[in-house]
Amino acid sequence: MDAPSSQAAGLEAAFRELRPDLERRARAMGAVNEAEDILQEVWIRLRAARAPVGNPRAYLYHMVYTAVLDHKRGRRRSSARDGDWVQTDYGGLPSTTQAPEAERALIARETLAQVHARLEALGDPAAAIFRRHRIDGETQRHIAEDLRMGLSTVEKHLRRAYAAILGLDGDEA
To answer: Nearest CA to 19 among 46, 50, 54?
Structure first.
């Protein structure tokens, strides 16, 4: 009965003495942020250890090694599990990557149809100037020269087109 308690006390004393080295070992193995957690696990495990240990230093280093590997495996399993869950439509819920995509496409088509209808109702030259400037990328100056009108007239037609697209009266533009 006396040997196990002195054995545990010896392991605990070795742990306290080697703690900074054990923490460096855990960090060196890649457990930079988890080193404290790993040492806590090692402490709990060694408090439960009852077998005699011939070389406490080697035993503690091996315990840190095992705990770091366990943490890495756990993170890998957790990451794989989370990845699988995301790929199976968020745990059985409707896929959020497909529904909004289709909805966005439908909204975009409807909006484009409204813009087209408003431009058609506006008529030329405002609709044609808007298309040449905003869709074809022509400069206002080039359009003004081509249509033989002043730059301010082209700007006026663009303002009318913008107002029509936004559903405003021509007076508000």
So the answer is: 46
